[in-house]
Amino acid sequence: MLLQHATWPEVESYLESNKGIIIPIGSTEQHGPSGLIGTDALTAEVIGQRLGKATGAFVAPTLNYGMAQHHMAFTGTVTLQPSTMIAVTRDIVMSLVRHGFERIFFVNGHGGNVNSVKAAFSEVQSELVEAKGLRDGGSNHPPDDVRLELHNWWMGEKTTALRKSLYGDREGYHATPSEVAVTWFSFPEQKRDVELGPLEKIKRAYQGPEDFRKLFPDGRMGSDPSLATVEDGERLVLLAVGELAERYRQFLRED
Ligand code: NI
């Protein structure tokens, strides 16, 4: 169920028996010569919305922008500053918590978001602790019942094993064949047939956007997205949704 397609009385009645919500979170950034700028947001949205269907959970609107500073030397990339990202994440979570959501499950499509989202979780937790101290008790939604989790859709044990078996070392770290496969499965009309250059080996850590482009001139990081297929994308989506659904159900039950 999409939060955007619900009415407020429907959300209110859902909250009588279910405190969980899923939030897809991505990025708007270059993904090499064949990957879509929206790859990270689209993959998180497709997987997050299917997860919502599988578990009967509400799915909040996708956060389409993320922390993509290191991709800014490539045209079309849009980034939030880490401090903006922390503030946006905090505001979304606190709004949902105010209404009584207690299990907030982020499905993430972009590794660069992890530090900022986790920092936002810390801010929320300290704010809730402080709020609890100021309260005189008796609330329907004790703030210490709030739980927050962030899951990178590609990092589950089985999903990781499938990625490895499909692509081995050619999976790489950015503009990976697995994320490209998920977008092609989801939006087959957007499939690109682009001749790619040789794989760039990762020699050292990059220092900001210009250096990133110097090390990885076409935007890929050690990945070979030409291996991606629509069929692989389907397998990855189904497996990732299954794994995340297992974790989400457990997350709802935990006290
Ligand atoms: Ni990506």
Written description of the protein model:
- With 255 residues, this protein is α/β, with parallel strands linked by helices.
- The protein has one domain (3-253): Rossmann fold (3-Layer(aba) Sandwich), CATH 3.40.50.10310.
- Helices cover 45% and strands 8% of the residues.
- It has helices at 8-15, 39-55, 82-99, 114-134, 157-167, 177-186, 209-215, 230-253, and strands spanning 20-25, 58-59, 103-108, 147-152.
- Strands 2-1-3-4 form a 4-stranded parallel sheet, sandwiched between helices.
- Strand 3 (103-108), helix 4 and strand 4 form a beta-alpha-beta unit.
- The mean pLDDT is 94.
- Bound molecules: nickel (II) ion (NI).
SSE diagram, text form:
Blueprint: H1 8-15, E1 20-25, H2 39-55, E2 58-59, H3 82-99, E3 103-108, H4 114-134, E4 147-152, H5 157-167, H6 177-186, H7 209-215, H8 230-253
Parallel strand pairs: 1-2, 1-3, 3-4
Helix pairs in contact: 2-6, 2-8, 3-4, 5-8, 6-8
The chain binds nickel (II) ion.
The site of nickel (II) ion has 5 residues, from α2.
Strand content: 5-15%
Q: Count of helical segments?
A: 8
CATH fold-level topology: Rossmann fold
CATH class: Alpha Beta
Q: Structural class of the helices, strands and pairings?
A: alpha/beta
DSSP helix fraction = 40-55%
Tell me the number of strands.
4
- Described by the principal axes of the CA atoms, the overall outline is globular
Radius of gyration: 19 Å
Question: What is the architecture at the second tier of CATH?
Answer: 3-Layer(aba) Sandwich
How many structural domains in the coordinates? 1
